[in-house]
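Tokens for chain A. Residues wanted.
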């Protein structure tokens, strides 16, 4: 048979219902869409968890060494690849008394210039002066650049930052931070790097001043927000997600559907072989039918993938969508290979046994 006749035969089988195309398409659509959607949702969840980890300050590591941190060296860590921000901090023994709320003094810190970018939703040091939490600024009715009268003298509001009560170390939600010269000593060096790795954590030790008198306990490392647990590699979380085997599951389901679709027609196929239809022509006809219903079935999964990944950043959307699309692609591949395997297993010589077992 010419290929044109083979195509025509496949089209007739599809339109007449002999190939059960609608049922097979629905089976493939249900399997590929559900598996791909679950995988896309799981991958999106991994990304959202990583974003929350960073947003809540859990990716910030703090080195504590009282009076031993070189502010300039700590700020320089912010220029290292993979580090979002770095800065040094020291708490003053004397709180800051603001004239408008003298009965409620603020915890007072001094920081290196780089620390301004460390805090969540920080405006940074847009003006020379104090950095204060947004909640305190709103209570005082201040805007950037406004003067502030304190017991130590007048100053201005130089910047703001948010400090939500979400598990972060306490103390900075009701405070004031005064940026100071980086060539002084500080108590802490903060670094925000994600993924958190031993290599980036070890960088903190380079911020210890050469002439530092370290305490007997040595410098201590801590996590800024421990409520979300210890930092985990996003690559590991992605590779160990519960849905990682779904593409292979889709392939297996597709193969079973394709094999079953042909095997249920084994009497029809063996009869065609018996009356002289060439096996190659019969096999190509079955493959064209499988290509049609499997491809239409897996196309249903694509809108579901798009819907679940639409809110992701482009840098995340493309790999997540491509990985999720692997499931319907393998489901269709499995259906075609299952069809081929079953077509090759049907034997004309077993026509009578197929007839008896129908």
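Reply:
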């Amino acid at each position: 048979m010419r290929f044109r006749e083979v195509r025509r035969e496949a089209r007739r089988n599809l339109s007449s219902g002999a190939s059960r195309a609608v049922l097979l398409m629905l089976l493939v659509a249900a399997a590929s869409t559900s598996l791909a959607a679950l995988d896309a949702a799981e991958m999106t969840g991994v990304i959202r968890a990583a974003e929350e980890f960073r947003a809540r300050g859990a990716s910030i590591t703090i080195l504590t060494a009282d009076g031993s941190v070189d502010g300039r060296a700590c700020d320089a860590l912010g220029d290292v690849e993979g580090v979002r921000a770095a800065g040094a901090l020291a708490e003053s023994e004397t709180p800051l008394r603001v004239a408008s709320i003298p009965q409620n003094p603020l915890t007072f810190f001094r920081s290196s210039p780089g620390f301004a970018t460390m805090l969540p939703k920080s405006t940074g040091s847009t003006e020379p002066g104090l950095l204060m939490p947004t909640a305190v600024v709103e209570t005082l009715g201040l805007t950037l650049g406004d003067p502030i009268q304190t017991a130590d003298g007048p100053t201005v509001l130089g910047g703001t930052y948010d400090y939500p009560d979400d598990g972060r170390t306490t103390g900075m939600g009701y405070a004031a931070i005064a940026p100071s010269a980086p060539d002084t000593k500080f108590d802490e060096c903060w670094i925000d790097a994600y993924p958190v790795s031993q290599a980036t954590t070890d960088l903190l030790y380079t911020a210890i001043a050469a002439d530092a008198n370290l305490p007997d306990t040595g410098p201590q490392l801590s996590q800024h927000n421990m409520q979300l647990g210890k930092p985990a590699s996003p690559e590991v979380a992605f590779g160990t997600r519960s849905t990682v085997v779904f593409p292979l599951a889709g392939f297996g389901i597709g193969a079973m559907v394709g094999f079953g679709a042909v095997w249920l027609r084994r009497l029809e196929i063996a009869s065609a072989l018996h009356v002289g239809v060439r096996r190659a022509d019969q096999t190509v006809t079955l493959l064209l039918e499988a290509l049609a219903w499997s491809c239409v079935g897996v196309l249903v999964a694509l809108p579901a993938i798009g819907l679940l990944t639409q809110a992701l950043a482009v840098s995340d959307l493309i790999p997540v969508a491509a990985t999720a699309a692997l499931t319907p692609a393998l489901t269709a591949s499995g259906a075609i290979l299952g069809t081929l395997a079953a077509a090759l297993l049907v034997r004309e010589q077993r026509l009578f046994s197929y007839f008896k077992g129908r």
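DSSP finds twelve helices and nine strands in the chain. Residues 59-227 form one domain.
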